[in-house]
Design a protein that fits this description.
Keywords: DNA damage, DNA repair. With about 425 residues, the protein is mostly helical. Among the domains are: about 90-120 and about 260-290 and about 320-410, no CATH class; about 120-215, Hypothetical protein, domain 2 (Endonuclease III, domain 1, Orthogonal Bundle). It contains 20 helices and no strands. The chain has helices at about 35-40, 45-55, 60-65, 90-100, 105-110, 115, 125-135, 140-150, 165-170, 180-185, 185-190, 195-210, 215-220, 225-235, 240-250, 260-275, 320-325, 365-375, 385-390, 400-410. Helix 16 (about 260-275) packs antiparallel against helix 18 and helix 16 packs across helix 20 (about 400-410). The longest helix has 15 residues, at about 195-210. The model is unreliable at about 1-20, about 35-70, about 280-320 and about 320-350 (pLDDT under 50).
Amino acid sequence: MPVTRSRSKGATGGADQQSVPKPHTSGRKRKATYDEVVEPLVEKPTAQKRALTGKQPVSAANAQSVKTVAVPNDPGPPPVLVPAELSFSFEEAKQHLVAADSRFQDVFDAVICHPYQKLDRVEPFRTLCTSILGQQISWMAARSICHRFVRLYKPSMPEKPTEDSVTEMKSPDAFFPSPQQVASTDIATLRTAGLSARKAEYVHDLAAHFSDGRLSTEKLLAADDEELYTMLTSIRGIGRWTVDMFAIFSLRRPNILPVGDLGVQRGLCRWYLSLHSDEHPIVVSPEKKKTPAKPKSAKKGRKIATNQVDDEADDVDGNDDIGASGSGDPAATVTNIPPPIIPSVSRMLKTKPLSRPPPDLPDGLSVAILKSRLSGKKVKGALLTPSEMGELTESWKPYRSLGVYYMWSVATADE
């Protein structure tokens, strides 16, 4: 019987002489090849791991198992929604801001204050959950992940988001998994929707807080502002910026000042600089319907994620605080909290004179300093410190949230 040639030594076949390097005669030790050193160290991902992480293509057989993962069916009690009403008079709030700065009258005439004029019921768990799912990724990636997350609990949904399904999910009556269902789902199953391990843990922790009663709609409504911060920041994945956005857009609290939001900081700089510098006047344009802009090509080496599925770029400290490092625009930093749909101011034009002398700038601030900070010379990573923001908006109390809403419009003004 002929001997079969083999690439490895064996009891019957010997070794393939062509595959064995010839011994060195110079006495120098032969250098190991790349395959000999690296290949034994490389962990080959199994089909199961690729299916769970979503990072590699999944075989047809394995893909079927991912789509049919078992999830809890018991939704628990029906959710309690935040009612579509305000806890204050919107007209009184407008009059207060106009009395503090007459330019607000032009703003109110031109721009709808969506959080306080377009009221709808809100489910806190759903809002906070989608906020976590959308952290630090593009709006398209967030939409895809939210769709896949909900589809875990409603397999009859289309495999990919459609225009109809996206519109339906915006309704407060649309299906969304309950805290009990999510809390009973293991991390590996949540990751099949495209969540990173850390983000899956965040969502699971949030669901556990609502499921065991540590959080509820009633407790959120009854808490004052400081109690609200304490309650929500105890949850992994939720930082102060997210709490501020939730308080403004979902709970519709009137006196919230998001000191970590760069958009608000930039808007305040421009708003007050215009009072002391003729080179920086402000006026707003009437609101126009906005459509999502197509992502621009990455020119200057900047990568723009448009179809990201697995998002490992979560903050390592366990909270998001996106506004402190992002653009400051809630619509840009996708959180799926009802965004401030406000127009981009097309041009900074001259403003009419105030009915009273402009307020003095806080100690330590000047026209030159505000200009330098707008040009990029930040202080401790911010355009304004929390104390400076507090002093600049002191006359807006107790309706700071309304003024803050319009600062995003001023922040995006073209120069």
